[in-house]
Amino acid sequence: MLVGSQTCRNGIRTNREVKLKEEDVLRAARVVLPAVNFAISKAGELFSGEPSMTLKVAPWLLIGYEYGHIVTFKRLCALGFFIGFTGPKLYSLYSVQICKKGENMKARILEAWGGCSHKKIVAGSAVTVFWNLTSIKTRIFAAFICLVIFRWYRQQLTWTEEVEEEGQQQVKKTLTLVESVKVDQRY
Predict the structure, then answer these.
(1) Rounded to an integer, what distance in angstroms lies between the CA atom of residue 184 and that of residue 187?
(2) Which are the contacts of 57, defined by CB distance < 8 A and separation ≥ 6?
């Protein structure tokens, strides 16, 4: 490959010799290393193991797994350019409407689920249909996502309990402070 890429002029091959000095390598390292360090630190944040971050990253990994052969560097740059300019504009124009639609849809689903008298049968049917219509890879991915959701839910429960305990401790401190002030005022 490299032999055929050398320039040929009038059937005469010209060989160019490139000598790298230590200064050239150091200059290139000073340019490249900050970008590599940034990429490594962001990758560490993305794959830290926190359930909330896993839920954010997992769909993109699944899309990359399924359709990664279609993505080329040229298409990725074009998509990034398009999203970079149109995404913020569309978000600023339609975010209120999208949030309202989402809240309405959530309320309708919760209302329908609350009014359903056969919740166990509906849930069992949904699991059975999912199991019969999906591949093994999708089942494994769904099990992984369910595990992550359970971990995230448990983490949220412990966080709210800690916040409630801190709030109760603050109330006790405030009551103690108020009682001590009342006692001091009597004397």
Answers:
(1) 6
(2) 46, 47
| DSSP string across the chain | -TTTTS-EETTEE--------HHHHHHHHHHHHHHHHHHHHHHHHHTS--HHHHHHHHHHHHHHHHHTTT--HHHHHHHHHHHHHHHHHHHHHHHHHHHHHHHHHHHHHHHHHHH-S-HHHHHHHHHHHHHHHS-HHHHHHHHHHHHHHHHHHHHHHHHHHHHHHHHHHHHHHHHHHHHHHHHHHH-
What CA–CA distance (Å, rounded) separates 34 from 39?
9
φ, ψ for residue 72 (rounded to 5)? -115, 170
Residue type (1 letter), 100: K
Percent of the chain surpassing pLDDT 90: 10
CB of 54 closer than 8 Å to CB of 148? yes
pTM: 0.44
Give the residue-averaged pLDDT of 159-168. 68
Confidence at residue 138, expressed as pLDDT on a 0 to 100 scale: 83
Express each pLDDT in 96-109 by its tens digit: 999 999 999 999 98
pLDDT > 50? residue 184: yes
